[in-house]
Structures are given as C-alpha cells and as structure tokens.
C-alpha cells in the first residue's frame, strides 16, 4: 500500500534540499561567478515552484466557493495557448491528463518565472482536473503520475502525484525558446509544439496513460527540469484544516440519509440496490444521486462521496438493527443504544497503519467493506448478525491526522 500521506512532506523536503544545495553551492563557489549564478537561479526556481504549488492547492480547496453546486478538490486545466489562463473548455477526455503552461492568471498569480526567466509548466491528472471532471473525486482518488529521479529510481516517499509543476531550467543543446509574440511567457501559442523546447522528458500535452515524470539535475546535460508535485493527500490535508470541511461532509451524510429513508419503502428499491441478504438484513453500497432523487446542486458532492458509504436495512421494515451511537469523535460522550430500521454507514478516511490498515486502490478493494469500516461494523455488516457502533456526526478531532472513525446514521 502506498502511504500517500507522507508525500506532501517528501515534496517539501525535496524543495528544501534543493534550496540547501543551491545555498551550499553558492558558499562553496564564492569565488566562481558561474557557480553563484547557477545557485541563485536554482533558488529562484524553487521559490517559484513553491508559490505555484500553494496557489494550486488553494484553488482546489476553495473550488466549491468559486463554482457553486460543485464539490471541492478540482484543479484547473493547463494553459495550452500561452495566454496565462486555463484552457477554455475541456482539456482532453475524461480521466486523461493534460500538460501545458501554468495558468497563472486563473490562479491569480503573476507570470511566475524560474531562475532562468522561463514560465512554469504544469501537468494535471484526470483524477483531479475540472474539465471534464472525473466521475468521483474524494480523498481516495488516485495519483496517476509516477515520479522518478534522473536514474529512473522512484523518488523516496513520493512515488505518485496528481499534479506536477515544472521549472524548465536553462535551454539544453537543441532547444529553441523564442520570446513570446503578444504573450508574457516565451514560446508560441501552442503548448504541445513548445514542449520539447522547454521540458526534457519527451512528454506529450495529452497524457493518455500513466506517464512517468523525471526530476532532473541543475547541471545535467540531458534533463535540468526541477519538479514539484501535489498529491491527493496534499489536497485533502489542506481541506481538513478548513473549519467548515467537517460540516460539508456531515451535510453530504445528512442528505444521503434523508433521501435513503424516503426510498426504503419504495417497491423494488431494495431489490435493485442490495448486494448482500441474510435473514432479515439487506445491505449494499449507497445508490447515486439520480437513484435517490438528490437534485442539483447537491448531486455532485453526493456522487463524489457515495463510495464511502454502505447501508443495511431490515427487510420487513422493523427496527431490527441495534447501534451504539455517540455524538462525534471530536466530542465523544456516552454512547446511546438505538434501534433502527436501517443504518447508513460512512467509513471516513482510510486507516494508514497498524493491524486495521486499509487500502482503497484497486476495484476489488473499493468493493470491500473491510477497506472502509472498522469493527464491529464491518463484521456485523458482512455476517448479518450483531450490533453496530460509531458516531452520529463526522468530525475532525485533529486537522493534522486523517479522520478515520465510522459515522452511522440511524433511520428509525
């Protein structure tokens, strides 16, 4: 299992190391103007990458505010026309990645430059891009890009990313970078044509598979690109620090519970959506917004998060289910035993370590309730016997840690 929550720290550590290398090179080369110039350029590149990375994460975290009725976590398409703005319309097909210049205007930035005066470049994965959006975006979305060093080795603690930033560095032999005509950034209005002259990894603008991106070295004759990256965990670690994030998730749970309760009595509903039946219990994954009648603007957030849910219901409509429920993990109080005709269970973030460690990478894992729910809930769900226990509301006791506790809504 990829322990993806370490990658943001690894990225920052990598940028810090590059800064230290640049500073050390400057100190060691005090009498060499060339060394001093290269080290200063490297430091400027790292600073620009860090600023762009922060702006992209801010864009993702605040996406719902600027796009009412949509969820958060999305990143913009790249600038494909050298205008400083994200591509108008779709950047290739759903789930495909895109590579172009950083859309600095879209992010509210100046035209950030690396230490050699070139604008930054940017790749966004199909799992997080905003046009066309992925079918699902949540804290379990994949990081589709692979990161390696100049020798092809996986970067320590940073094997994958959802978005990549590039500082092109000075031109290599064979690269031509003409000044932009009518644009701030050097190059032509076609990012795809310009790519071989700015980036050194033989990349395409249309990323249809799982591309590998190479962290270059400042003085390497074949690749001097400097990379920074963003992971899904980076985005949701920032989301977790929002004071209203727990409220947003709780609202998704509220609407799902209300919609499910209204449809449990509909003829044929359980038959259509149940995947496990035993005795008087029937359970399955939460249906999508269309099946539950959840309208816009709530449909998009519902469908983004519905894979985190399971439901279990009493087939005869009785209150055959027992759940011990406390208020929330942030305000744990004495649990109260409740009888319910159905339960809606929300798994929370995956458990990263220990004997209950969870993985939600493959289709088989995502279909497995054990990768979402904790004991006793997963045992009771799969065995169709026993009680349940959890919290009525989603909360974030510690913004620096994943919130893994099961949330349970009782449908009386």
Write the layout of secondary structure elements.
Blueprint: H1 7-28, H2 33-61, H3 63-66, E1 95-101, E2 121-126, E3 145-149, E4 160-161, E5 163-167, H4 191-198, E6 206-207, E7 212-215, E8 226-230, H5 232-240, H6 245-263, H7 269-273, E9 276-278, E10 281-285, H8 289-292, H9 299-305, E11 309-314, E12 321-328, E13 336-340, E14 342-346, H10 363-366, H11 377-383, E15 388-393, E16 407-411
Parallel strand pairs: 3-7, 12-15
Antiparallel strand pairs: 1-2, 1-6, 2-5, 3-4, 5-8, 9-10, 10-11, 11-14, 12-13, 14-16
Helix pairs in contact: 1-2, 2-5
Protein name: Type II secretion system protein
Region (Disordered): 172-191
Commentary on this structure:
Helix 1 packs antiparallel against helix 2 (33-61) and helix 2 crosses helix 5 (232-240). The chain starts with 6 loop residues before the first helix and ends with a strand. A hairpin with a 7-residue loop joins strand 12 (321-328) and strand 13. Helices cover 29% and strands 19% of the residues. It has 412 residues and is an alpha+beta fold. The longest helix is centred in the N-terminal third of the chain and has 29 residues, at 33-61. It contains 11 helices and 16 strands. The radius of gyration is 24 Å and the shape is elongated. It has a 5-stranded antiparallel beta sheet with strand order 6-1-2-5-8. A 5-stranded antiparallel beta sheet has the order 9-10-11-14-16, with helices on both faces. The protein has a 3-stranded mixed beta sheet with strand order 4-3-7, with no helix packed on it. Residues 1-7 and 22-28 have low confidence and may be disordered. The chain folds into 2 domains: 4-239, no CATH class; 243-411, no CATH class.
């Amino acid at each position: 299992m990829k322990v993806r929550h370490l990658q943001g720290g690894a990225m920052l550590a990598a940028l810090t190391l590059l800064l230290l290398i640049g500073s050390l090179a400057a100190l060691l080369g005090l009498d060499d103007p060339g060394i001093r110039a290269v080290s200063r350029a490297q430091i400027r590149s790292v600073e620009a990458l860090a600023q762009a990375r922060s702006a992209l994460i801010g864009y993702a975290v605040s996406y719902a505010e600027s796009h009412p009725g949509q969820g958060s976590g999305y990143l913009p398409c790249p600038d494909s026309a050298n205008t400083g703005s994200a591509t108008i319309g779709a950047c290739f097909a759903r789930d495909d990645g895109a590579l172009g210049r950083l859309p600095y205007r879209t992010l509210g930035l100046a035209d950030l430059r690396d230490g050699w005066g070139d604008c930054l470049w940017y790749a966004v994965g199909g799992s997080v891009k905003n046009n066309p959006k992925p079918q699902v975006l949540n804290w379990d979305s994949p990081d589709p890009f692979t990161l390696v060093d100049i020798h092809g080795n996986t970067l320590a603690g940073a094997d994958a990313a959802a978005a990549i930033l590039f500082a092109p560095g000075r031109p290599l032999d064979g690269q031509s970078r003409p000044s932009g005509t009518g644009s701030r950034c050097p190059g032509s209005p076609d990012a795809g044509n310009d790519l071989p002259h700015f980036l050194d990894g033989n990349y395409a603008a249309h990323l249809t598979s799982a591309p590998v991106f190479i962290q270059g070295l400042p003085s390497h004759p074949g690749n001097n690109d400097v990379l920074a990256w963003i992971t899904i965990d980076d985005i949701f670690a920032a989301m977790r620090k929002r004071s209203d994030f727990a409220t947003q998730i709780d609202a998704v749970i509220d609407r799902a519970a209300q919609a499910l309760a209204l449809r449990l009595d509909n003829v044929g509903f359980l038959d259509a959506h149940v995947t496990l039946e035993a005795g008087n219990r029937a359970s399955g994954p939460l249906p999508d917004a269309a099946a539950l009648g959840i309208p816009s603007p709530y449909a998009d957030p519902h469908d983004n998060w519905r894979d985190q849910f399971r439901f279990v219901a009493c087939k005869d409509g009785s209150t055959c289910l027992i759940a011990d429920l406390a208020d929330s993990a942030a305000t744990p109080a004495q649990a109260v035993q409740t009888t319910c005709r159905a339960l809606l269970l929300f798994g929370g973030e995956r458990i990263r370590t220990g004997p209950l460690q969870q993985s939600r990478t493959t289709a088989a894992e995502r279909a497995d309730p054990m990768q979402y729910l904790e004991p006793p809930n997963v045992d009771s769900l799969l065995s169709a016997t026993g009680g349940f226990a959890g919290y009525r509301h989603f909360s974030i006791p510690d913004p620096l840690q994943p919130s893994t506790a099961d949330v349970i809504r009782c449908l009386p």
